[in-house]
Amino acid sequence: QVQLVESGGGLVQPGGSLRLSCAAEGSRFSLYVMGWFRQAPGKQRELVVTITSGGSTNYADSVKGRFTISRDNAKNTVYLQMNSLKPEDTAVYYCNARSIVTLTHYWGQGTQVTVSS
Question: Are 26 and 2 in contact (CB under 8 A)?
Fold first, then answer.
């Protein structure tokens, strides 16, 4: 199993930037595809981006060119750099880890990102 702890959410003006972090504890980090999902009020949770241990990424079209995911395998941490934020990016952002062995998903507690003037 793996435990995920997110940090870095907050309130930002449109056009601003935020960086989210997710620290993973409890298992071999390299055995997980890491990712970020988000859920806005009244909407389903949606994929933002994933990254494999080798660095391959998969972005949602809505964030391509604005968001960048990275992972530090030595620190068991994944980051999401969010630039040019828009009001429609407002959501609770969840860190996700998917085991490449069992395909089990693990979730963080979520962190609120609010983009508003």
Answer: yes
Half-sphere exposure of 23 (CA within 13 A, CB side): 5
Q: DSSP for 47-91, please give it.
A: EEEEE-TT--EEE-GGGTTTEEEEEETTTTEEEEEE-S--GGG-E
Write the pLDDT tens digit of every residue in 87-113.
999 999 999 999 999 999 999 999 999
Contact 31, 99 (CB under 8 A): yes
Helix (H, G, I), strand (E, B) or coil at 30: helix
For 44-68, what is the mean pLDDT?
97
Nearest to 48 by CA among 32, 62, 29: 62
Q: How far apart are CA 79 and CA 62, in angstroms?
A: 18
